[in-house]
Specification:
heterodimer; A: about 190 residues; mainly alpha; B: about 700 residues; 3-methyladenine DNA Glycosylase II, Chain A, domain 3; FAD/NAD(P)-binding domain; 5-stranded parallel β-sheet
């Protein structure tokens, strides 16, 4: 049990997918201007990351590995994740319209998101089982969401502050992301 | 190995495609068929000018009710009608809008950044804040031209964007692209409703003009030979340009920067030039009006304030009715300004132009007698404007001033204008130093009397226009300075025969900066007169406001007998009742009444359509200090044009025909060329002798 707890906390804080692994920086800056949007995006990432990690684990375990095609991992994962996101979008639109309304516009953004891809690949590198893979993906997605919502909160406050013209918008956002990254490094010694 | 890899990936891809294909069939969500219909009728430019992602996005937004049928900025009214038909909506014509540039350039061009790598206004603005002198002006790097999806903007030879009104769809991309706010998209109504803002590019003349006329723009149009355009520019602020071209004392010219080189630009001569061109061309320019709103508005008083208010309300689509107590419209402009300064025929022509727009007028209808504010509201008038002017002559506070043969200046001019003037006799004394006094004096000269104008200070302190004083001197009006009336002496029949007066001397300056006249004791003297005309001031006659039975006035008034109203909105203490003109300010200029009439019309428009009247914080009230620069380098001296006199000096005294004439086209173009094209803090150095090469790179 302790092993799973450590894996969960480690994925969420210590090895935070954006702030420690530097994956998914594009949506991290792009969708962190508004807390509401950040929550929506974070939720979408958690959802897709869990689905994608699970499916890619199955693809790896039952298609690629048995035929010795593990080297096609990256290419195959791209294909699978892209198709998956499309499918999920259609499925949600038809079956769960309320969820589609809140996550829908973010799903196409995640199709080619490296954070989602990265989570799937890390699971393979670490040779996790299916349960651990899903747990890791869920925790990493949550880590992304936490970082995103925190940054959005900071940027919402910055938006109404007097700043040098050259620093307004993305530049100060990047500075803040860097400071947050430094702060998250403090978790390193905990585990 | 390659084959296996390829086959595997192909297999996975095929599998995914098959699943997606089946899923899309199974999970198909039926879309509103109207989205497809609407998307088909849109032009398919996918320009994003509407603010939605492409035409399909716009179509979805229209169906979802988030966008109007006219959301497409590329499509014409016909497409909007088709879309509206799909949506089952009614089509209402939208007022056409255009992008307009509000920067004259000035010395911006020579200061613009010519730096490799920063060929974009936004980047230049971020890097250096752009041009060093003006916080508002154009940087001239052409970002707006590149932002325009319709190629309607070209960078002109002077480095300023030139907007082609034929191509412009008013999408606003240029407005978003410009970091300086130089370009604004606006329709006619928005322009009519706009008050000068401190964030506008306001040349000093534009700040000073009480009517807020865009002076640099119309001078520029005259220079380009677009005389009709200049008339329309003026008419966005002033419907009485034939009148103002003749009688305005030109506050704008006192702020003209050209005075620091030689003498101010003859702004009013240019106004008169274009106004007369329209007047004598035999056909009126058509004035666009917004779509009818069907709202009835009552305008009490057909003077300049009332005419201006009614004109702007009409152009904003409302239906104003003017109630005038006198037999003709025009107010003080008709009855207070003599024929030789403003021919009645020209005034009639101008007023007819306003009435032709659809303004109704009821003359010989007295406020307080034939109708009241309550009766107007009962008749369905949503708002009421009170512009009854200042028609009561102030007294001399001298004994005997109620004798026969004493008549107030404005009463005399009014009576004369109505053809009921008194017999002036042989010798007339006019008391006062303002324009009314001079008008009365020059009128009496024309009626064959000898006229003495008595003023308690000296010629230098006279508030009348200098041209008027000189005109009076040329026509033989005798001046008696430093003299103040003491009492009117009459004969047994109660008729005035003499005016007794004191001699005065000038003492310390008072709060107006003029030296205060002090009575010399024991200096009384007498002067014989058949008619004495005190013209020392006017005040509003508010008796029409008072209730006959209770004797109460529903409006708040001041000790100067003016009506109290909000200084920004011109709304009185009765909601929906507005005021402006002399009855609000006390006796003031024609152009002030016109300007305030427009501001009141603006307030009334917002009052009726929105229920509240916005007053932007940046509204310009005083002159903007940093715009009043005095250093003007290397500008060639050019003499100011002189207004020609129409009749010979020796025949002037016996005729009431107009004295001043208009400029010729050549003179007007030369005069327009003297304009320095000032902006807020800049002027055009291209006006200088040694023209620098343009350094703009756009």
């Amino acid at each position: 049990m302790q092993e799973y707890f450590l894996l969960f906390m480690g994925a969420m804080f210590v090895n935070n997918i954006v702030l420690a692994q530097y994956l998914g920086n594009c949506p991290f800056i792009g969708t962190s201007k508004d807390t509401g949007v950040a929550i929506g995006m974070g939720g979408a990432v958690v959802f897709v990351a869990v689905m994608a990690a699970g499916i890619t684990w199955l693809v790896q375990a039952y298609i690629l590995a048995p035929f010795g095609l593990a080297y096609l991992q990256t290419l195959a994962f791209i294909l699978v994740i892209a198709a998956l996101v499309q499918f999920v979008e259609m499925f949600l639109k038809k079956m769960v319209p309320p969820l589609y309304k809140s996550l829908g516009i973010f799903l196409p953004l995640i199709t080619t998101n490296c954070a989602v891809m990265g989570i799937a690949l890390i699971c393979q590198r670490e040779e996790f089982g299916l349960l651990k893979t899903v747990l890791f993906a869920f925790a990493s997605g949550l880590g992304f969401m936490i970082a995103l919502v925190l940054l959005a909160g900071i940027r919402e406050r910055l938006a109404v502050r007097r700043l040098p013209i050259a620093m307004r918008g993305t530049p100060i956002g990047l500075v803040m992301a860097g400071l947050m990254s430094l702060a998250f490094f403090a978790f390193k010694g905990m585990i | 190995m390659i084959l296996t890899s390829g086959l595997t990936l192909f297999g996975i891809g095929l599998g995914a495609a098959a699943i997606l294909g089946v899923a899309s069939k199974l999970l198909y969500v039926k879309e509103d068929p109207r989205i497809g219909l609407i998307e088909g009728s849109l032009p398919g430019a996918n320009c994003g000018g509407c603010g939605f992602p492409g035409c399909s996005g716009a179509a979805a937004a229209i169906v979802a009710g988030k966008a109007p049928a006219s959301v497409c900025i590329v499509a014409d009214a016909e497409t909007a009608a088709v879309v509206a038909a799909v949506m089952g909506q009614e089509v209402i014509e939208r007022e056409p809008e255009l992008a307009l540039r509000d920067c004259t350039g000035g010395n911006r061009a020579s200061e613009s950044f010519n730096y490799e790598g920063v060929l974009d206004c936004r980047a230049a603005h971020l890097l250096y804040g752009g041009s060093k002198t003006c916080p508002e002006g154009c940087l001239g790097l052409g970002t707006c031209a590149r932002a325009c999806p319709f190629e309607a903007i070209q960078m002109g030879p002077d480095g300023l964007p030139v907007i082609d009104p034929e191509q412009c769809k008013a999408c606003g991309n240029c407005v978003d692209a410009c970091p300086r706010g130089v370009i604004a998209v606006s329709g006619m109504s928005a322009r009519l409703l706009h008050l000068n803002q401190t964030t506008d590019c306001l040349a000093p003349c534009r700040q000073k003009c009480p009517g807020q006329i865009n002076i640099p723009k119309y001078i520029e149009q005259i220079k380009a030979g677009d005389y009709d355009g200049a008339v329309l520019t003026i008419k966005e602020r002033n419907p009485l340009l034939v009148t103002c071209g003749r009688v305005c004392p030109r506050p704008c010219e006192t702020e003209c920067r050209r005075q620091h080189v030689d003498s101010p630009v003859g702004i009013n001569m240019l106004k008169r030039f274009v106004a007369d061109r329209e007047l004598y061309s035999g056909k009126r320019l058509s004035i666009p009006c917004a779509k009818d709103t069907g709202r009835k508005v009552a305008v009490i008083g057909g003077g300049p304030a009332g005419l201006s208010c009614a004109y702007f309300l009409r152009r904003l689509g409302h239906n104003p009715t003017i109630f005038e107590a006198m037999p003709y419209l025009g107010g003080q402009v008709r009855y207070g300004i003599p024929e030789y300064r403003l021919p009645k025929a020209d005034l009639d022509w101008e007023i007819q132009g306003i009435l032709d727009l659809g303004v109704e007028a009821r003359v010989n209808t007295k406020f307080g007698v034939d109708f009241t504010i309550e009766s107007l509201k009962a008749e369905g008038y949503e708002t009421v404007f009170i512009g009854i002017g200042a028609w009561q002559a102030s007294g001399m506070y001298a004994e005997g001033e109620d004798l026969d043969g004493v008549m107030g200046g404005i009463e005399f001019l009014t009576a004369h204008a109505m053809g009921k003037g008194p017999d002036v006799g042989k010798h007339v004394i006019v008391v006062g130093g303002g324009n009314t006094a001079i008008d009365a004096a020059r009128t009496c000269i024309r009626l064959g009397a000898k006229v003495t104008l008595m003023y308690r200070r000296t010629r230098a302190e006279m508030p009348a226009n200098m041209e008027e004083i000189i005109g009076a001197e040329e026509e033989g009006v005798a001046f008696r300075f430093l003299a103040a009336p003491a009492r009117v002496v009459g004969d047994e029949s109660g008729r005035a025969t003499h005016l007794e007066y004191y001699e005065m001397e000038l003492g310390e300056p008072d709060e107006s900066g003029r030296r205060r006249p002090i009575k010399k004791e024991g200096s009384e003297a007498r002067m014989a007169a058949d008619l004495i005309i005190p013209a020392i001031g006017q005040k509003p006659d508010l008796t029409c406001l008072y209730d006959e039975n209770s004797g109460e006035c529903p409006l708040e008034t001041t000790k100067w007998q003016t009506i109290v109203a909000d200084e920004n909105t011109f709304e009185t203490i009765i909601p929906g009742v507005f005021t402006a003109g002399d009855v609000y300010t006390g006796p003031d200029l024609v152009i002030s009444a016109i300007g305030d009439g427009r501001k009141a019309a603006r307030s009334m428009h917002y009052y009726m359509t929105r229920g509240e009247i916005p007053v932007p914080e940046t509204t310009q009230k005083d002159m903007i200090p940093y715009s009043l620069f005095k250093e003007i380098d290397s500008v060639e001296r050019k003499e100011r044009a002189v207004m020609p006199h129409l009749c010979h000096d020796d025949e002037r005294n016996c005729t009431f025909s107009e004295v001043e004439g208009a400029l010729t086209e050549g003179e007007a173009l030369t005069e327009a060329d003297r304009c320095l094209r000032c902006g807020l803090v800049c002027y055009d150095r291209d006006m200088a002798e040694d023209r620098p090469a343009p350094t703009t790179n756009a």
